[in-house]
Every structure is written in structure tokens, then in C-alpha cells.
Amino acid sequence: MPQTNGHTTKGGASHNPPWLFGILSIPYGIFNGILVVLIPFLLRKHGVSPDRIANVIAISSIPNVWYFLWSPVVDTGLLRRTWVLIAAGVSGLCGSVAIAATSLSLAQLTILLLAGNVVAMLLSSACGAVLTMLNPDKRGRASGWYQAGNLGGGAVGAGAAIWLADKLPLPILAAAAGSMVFLPALAALLISEERFPRMGLVPLFRALGRDVWDVLRARATLIGLVFFLSPVGSSAVANLISSVGPDYHASDAQVAWVSGLAGGVLSALGCVLGGFVCDRVNRMTAYALAGLLSAIFSAWMALGSPTPLTYAGGYIGYALAAGVAYAAFTALELDILGKRRHAAGTAYSLLGASGNLPIAYMTWFDGIGYKYSGARGLMAVDSLANGIGGVVLLLFAAYSARAYLQTPGD
Q1: Domain limits at 1?
Q2: What span, in angstroms and rounded, lies between the C-alpha atoms of 394 and 172?
Q3: Residue 73 and residue 170 in one domain
Q4: Of 170, 198, 226, at which residue does a domain stop?
């Protein structure tokens, strides 16, 4: 019978259903949609130039890389579900104020959005900590649902907010956006999680340090970083797809549809599919195959005629492949971490942050490809990086790394 004397809640953390994580990740997806889609849209309507908008968003997005520095907060004191509720509430409030307070200067707006994103990243850390406690046979599906909620929630939420922006006064739009961030977080009340005996501050931080050190020095972590830092599955084309629409003679409406709602929903479907696959094949193999799939569709866009069909068809496939890659990333990360008693959120955030580096450098390399050969060059660079990298990782998964990952019993 499950313990209820302060060690575990009913059912235990390993019994959380995979679909629950699809709801828990929606708040961050929507907040991110507010940050990178709705706020730029509103600022442009108020006459702010794109270069100044870019500065606001770039500074506000800094926590996406460095959030592991404050993620230990979720490993101390409160239950992780409490942190989910706090983070969703505070970030939703920051987003609402940013939308409604038209009197704010750009500097004040940037600080507000930066603070909101600092807190919003705790959603990832807290949910990641709960994910690590799942049984291995659920990790793939849970990873798929988790990434689907993030990508799908962000796409649908941002699309809905843009649609409402032309129909509602700013105060009502702000309240609606804040509610969309917070309300899905109420699903955190359904989380079953382990309760550990309270520790003094010094022993607690010693235990956190030991747990993090165990992760950093583990051979499995080094193997994981080979995957996480590679260009495979970085899906950098997603950051540039809206800008190359004219190269394929796509209309503004087609670009908005392909790069916005359709792309986000298809990525979410790819996540669910990828999670299903990751529970049935080696996660490293799934990761490499997702990269090869991305290479096929970016090659389609590189070699095909510059038409809207090439643009839409290629990116539809690319978005699905991106979803599979995101699910495989999270599932592989959970395999590497195993079940962590003390530093689950910190360790999850540390490895998760590493995955943002390939997105940045591949976006830069893709941009260089465009500089020299236009859209074809951009897509060719991305295809070669994913294709060659995918083959290398596939061989690596088959012959080198499998023995060092957690066994199914972990």
C-alpha cells in the first residue's frame, strides 16, 4: 500500500499518467508565445521599430539558457506541484501587466518580461523533476506529451492571442492571456509526488551538490552531451521559416499559416508520435532518426522548385520531424538522469539548457547559408548538418553508447 506518512503521496510519483505532462507544459508554452509573438505584434502596432523590439525579446529570453542557475529552488522546501502553480501565477501576472500597461517604457517592459521569464523557467525545472520519477516504460510517452503541450500550447495560445488582439481592449486581452497561462497549471493538483523528510539547509545543499556532481561526472552524461550539443534535431529552420516565405513565392497568409498555427500543431503531433516511438526503440536511435527525417525535408526545400507547395510541404514534414526530435531529447535526458532524490530539477535543467546551444549556432549557420546561396543555401546547410550528424549519431548509438545508459530497471 502506498505510504502517506510524509514519504510519498497516494500512487507515488512514478504513477503519474503521461498525458498529465501535456497539460502541465502548456503554461510555459503560452507564456513564451506571449513573449515572442504577441508582445512584438503589439509593440509594432504602437510604432516601435523591429530592431528595438528584437532587443526587448533578446534580453527577455536570456533565462532560456541560464535557468539552471536558479533551478535548485524547486529542489528545496516546497512540493514541485506548488512551484508549478507559483511559477504559472507569477509569469501569467507579468505577461498580463506587460500587455495592459501601455505607459511602461521599453526598459521597464523588458525588465518585467525578463522577470516573468525567470520565474516561468521554474515550470520547466519543476515538471522535469517530476518527469524523472516516472518508470522507464512511461518516459517516452510522457516526454512526447510534455513537449506537445509546450509547442502546441504556445502555437495555439499565441494564435488565439493575436486573433483577440484586434477584437478586445488591452485590459481584457491581458486578463485573457494571463488566464491562459495560469489555468492549465491547476492540473498540477493532480500530481502525485514523493515527499522526502525535511533537511537542514546545509545538509540539503550538500545533498544537492552530491547529486549534481554525480550527474556531471557520469559517463552517460558525456554520451548524452554528444547528442544534445550536436546539430541533429536542433530544428533551427523553425526560427527562419517565416522569413524565407517570399523566396518560395508564398503569400503572407500562407507564411502565417505554415510558420504559425499549422507548424506548431504539427510539431505537437510529432512530439506525441515521437514519444510513442521512444517507448519502443532505443532513445538514442530515435534521436538520430529524427535528425535524418529533418534532413530529408530540408533537402526537399533546398532542391525543390521555389513554389508555395515546396515551402508548405517541406515545412509540414520538417515540423513533424522537429516534434519527434524534441520528444527524443527529453526521453533521452530522463534516461541519463534516472531517478534523482535531491537535485532532480537542477540536473534536468542543466542538461535541458545544453540543448539551446545547437539551436543558436545552427540558426547562425543557416543564416550564413542564406547569405551565400539564398533559401536553397539555408536549407542545404541545415540538411547536411542533420543528415551527416544523424548518420554519425546512429552509428554511435548502435556501437558505442547503449551500454552506458540506464537499464530499464532504473
Answers
A1: 1-198
A2: 50
A3: yes
A4: 198
Q: Say whether both 186 and 210 belong to one domain.
A: no
Backbone angles phi and psi of 10, in degrees to 5: -60, 130
Lowest-confidence region among 82-86, 315-319, 387-391, 395-399: 395-399
Same domain, 121 and 220: no
DSSP string computed for 117-153: HHHHHHHHHHHHHHHTTS-HHHHHHHHHHHHHHHHHH
For residue 78, the surrounding DSSP H or E stretch is none
pLDDT for position 294: 95
* Judgement on whether residues 220 and 185 belong to the same structural domain of the protein: no
Got the DSSP string for 345-392?
HHHHHHHHHHTHHHHHHHHHHHHHHHHHHHHHHHHHHHHHHHHHHHHH
Are the beta carbons of 64 and 187 closer than 8 angstroms?
A: no
Same domain, 135 and 229: no
Q: Which three cell numbers stand for residue 227?
A: 547528442
Q: Give CA–CA dist 256/121, Å, rounded.
A: 27
CATH of the domain at 95: 1.20.1250.20
Give pLDDT tens digits for 271-287.
Answer: 999 999 998 888 899 99
Residues 266/323, Cβ–Cβ less than 8 Å: yes
Q: Does 152 lie in the same domain as 49?
A: yes
Q: Which of 179, 198, 217 is the last residue of a domain?
A: 198
- Asked if residue 23 lies in contact with residue 186, where contact means CB atoms within 8 angstroms, the answer is no
Determine the Cα–Cα distance for residues 170 and 244; give it in Å rounded to an integer.
32
Q: What are phi and psi of 169, to 5 degrees?
A: -65, 155
Residue 261: phi, psi to the nearest 5?
-60, -50
User: For the chain, how many structural domains are there in total?
Assistant: 2
In a shared domain, residues 235 and 220: yes
User: Residue 75: what pLDDT?
Assistant: 80
pLDDT band at 200 (very low <50, low <70, confident <90, very high): low
Q: Is the pLDDT of residue 12 over 70?
A: no
Q: What long-range pairs does 10-13 form, CB within 8 A, spacing at least 24?
A: 10/192, 11/192, 12/133, 12/192, 12/194, 13/130, 13/133, 13/134, 13/191, 13/192, 13/193, 13/194
CB 370 within 8 A of CB 241: no
Name 50's Cβ contacts closer than 8 Å, sequence gap at least 6. Answer: 44
Give the Cβ contact number of residue 257 at 10 Å. 15
Contact 179, 93 (CB under 8 A): no
| Pair (224, 153) in one structural domain | no
CA distance 352 to 204: 23
Cα 106 to Cα 121: distance, rounded to the nearest angstrom: 22
